[in-house]
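Bug report (template v2)

What were you trying to do?
Predict the complex of my protein with 4'-deoxy-4'-aminopyridoxal-5'-phosphate.

What happened?
Run completed; filing so the output is reviewed.

Input:
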Amino acid sequence: MSKFWSPIVSRLTPYTPGEQPKINNLIKLNTNENPYGPSPLAIAAIQREAADTLRLYPNPDSEPLKLAIAAQNAEYGVTPAHIFVGNGSDEVLAHAFQALLQHDEPILYPDITYSFYPTYSRLYQVAYKTIPLSDDFMIEVDDYLEAGKNGGIIFPNPNAPTGCLLPLSEVERLVAAQPDSVVIVDEAYIDFGGDSAIPLVSRYPNLLVVQTLSKSRSLAGLRVGFAVGHPDLIAALERVKNSFNSYPLDRLAIAGATAAMQDQAHFDRTRLAVMNTRTGLVTGLNALGFEVLPSAANFVFARHPHHDAAILSAGLRADGVIVRHFTNERIAQFLRITVGSDSDCHALLTALPKHLL
Ligand code: PMP
């Protein structure tokens, strides 16, 4: 810290990302990456783009990508005017905090949730109030309805790091009951077993749905995310974006993401593979005595009644398997384990027993 730092930056606790280890032979089950890799059509599109056009600035509106997302959601009345794209959904969320959540009343989000929300709240000086999850780690819509006036609501669905899903009917109940609040549903993990709220967008002008290509499209390294909402919400995001960086997506990202959105077969094949592996992983963890929260994500959240999660995490690491452990008191007994390939999950289940003696 130095005297040149602004007061906001001095008070900021930055988000701590999951570890990206330098050693390659580790089994990495800590940051919810997809083991199957992106669509080959996306890689080919990136190669073509790299060969031909990097001399030129990209399309400032990422138009080909917006058209591909709109085409996929055309039956719900989604057009390019309903879509915002950014450099990962983290950037989309950052713009949403600035563009849509800076009001007098505090915004609401769960107490156990994606830890970028408190970081963005502090960075953009957005007051917030956390709403505790229920005893079984679920989001309870009634608790939000009873919390009084608010400056907006944001939550991941499925929630992170629990993986638990709020049914679409409950999402709709919340959005419908709060017409004066923007409700942002962060669907980073929705493709692994949940129903997206995108079909609701045409009926609720207060709903913004945020998705990413990092997980179900296996493009975490390309950094592409998007939001779908009423054109008035999208216009606010575009205004912030254009005041910040009018070219957030580069040519490679636009080309790769567009091709990835169009490859439905690869998308369905790989997300089903992740869901199948998840079933086996949960069975294996249960057999070892773990309690696993119901997951609709590409990770599971598991605790053992007799073993300390921090010690288990360190023991696994010594065996070359990295999982995520959070120090937040309410969830300190849990491990968050990414659903990797079958062989990754087998390695985890083989490494665990000796730490449970
Ligand atoms: N939302 C949630 C709930 C997440 O867990 C993540 C991944 N860390 C993101 C958003 C951001 O993903 P990305 O920036 O890679 O799109």
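What did the reviewer find?
The first helix runs from residue 7 to 11. The chain has a mean pLDDT of 96.
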